[in-house]
Structure formats: C-alpha cells, structure tokens
Amino acid sequence: MPQNLYSNNAASRKDDLLSSNNSLLDSDPENDSEKRFLGYKIAIVDKLVESMYEFRELHSKLNHNLLKDCAELQSSSTIASLEEKELESLNSRLNKNIKILKESISTLKSRQLEFDNAYKDVIENKPDALEPESLFTGVNPLSEQLIVLDSEIHAYDDALYYLTKALDNKKIELSVYLSQVKTLTQNQFLKKALAIKIKKMLN
Fold it and tell me: Which stretches make up the SB domain (predicted)?
C-alpha cells in the first residue's frame, strides 16, 4: 500500500513537472530526498527529450539545405560543363580563323611584293604604260572603242554640268547656254547610240 501511494505521488509529480514551463532543475529542491531525486531524473529526461527534438529539427533543416545545395551544385556543374564545351568549340573556330587570316596575310604580302616589283619595273622601263590610256585597254578594237566612247559620254555630262553652273552664276548668256547644250546633247546622243550598237556586237 505505501508503495502504491508512492507511485501515485511520483506519477502526479511527473505530470505536474511536464505541464510546468520550468524544469525541476531550476526549481527549489524538495525536502524529501527520494522525491528530489525523482524530480531531478524527470527534469533530466525532459531536458533530453527537448534537446532531442531541437536536434532533430536542426538536423532536418540541415539535411534540407544540404540537399538543396547539392541540387544547385549539380545544376551548376551541368551548366559549367556545357559552357566549357561551348568555349572549346569557340576556341577551335577561333584558331581556324586565325590560321586562315595568317594565310591570307601571307598571300597579301606576297602579292604586294609582286606588285611593288612590277610597278618598279614599269617605272624604270615603261613609264608611258602608266598613262590612263594605257592602263585601260580593251581585248579587241571594238572594246577599246567602247572604252573611248564611254569616257567621251561622261565628258559630255561634265561639260553640261559646268555649263549649267556657269549660267547660274551669270557668267554666260542664256542664248550661248542653249546653243552649247543643244550641240553637246546631240553629240552625246550619237555617242550613246554608237556605244549601244557596239555592246550588242560584243554580246
């Protein structure tokens, strides 16, 4: 009977401790040594349970953050791998372009040297060959005549332009202007007609 009474008192004391906000470790000690010892044991268990819950919650948060970080790292690793492949491809294309540019520069230098030598030879031995009439020649008499006609047609355009400018500046009379324009346009028309005929013959 005394044992049952002690058990009931202990259980009641435990319920009171669990429902209380303060631990028995923080309360005033009991006069009864057995009750005080039991109270300490219950308080220690309470602290352990509370610490375990806190640890489990912290552990859960850490696991969640760790999984999230791992996923982000995996995604970053995939992106980095793709970017690395793209950079390698760009580097390969760049190296090819550099090679082509070097070859082109080498070719240009070679052509420049050939041109300089040819120009020097012409200056020293055939200076007349640099005259415009000598630079632009046709492959046959008709093409040469077409080149001459084309230059004459453009010369008529220039003459008409300067005549109009002279009239605007009142340097010539209107009658003179009209007379000259009539003559120039007639001659230009004949030149153009002949040029068209030669082009048809060449084609």
Answer: 140-203
CB 153 within 8 A of CB 191: yes
Which tokens in the block code for residue 134? 């000598």
Q: Which long-range contacts (CB under 8 A, 24 or more apart) does 186-190 make?
A: 187/156, 188/153, 188/156, 188/157
pLDDT in tens, 47-103: 888 888 888 888 888 888 888 888 887 887 788 888 888 888 888 899 999 999 999
Helices and strands counted in the chain (H then E): 5, 0
* Rounded Cα gap, residues 97 and 58, in angstroms: 57
pTM assigned to the model: 0.38
* Structure tokens belonging to residue 40: 């300490």
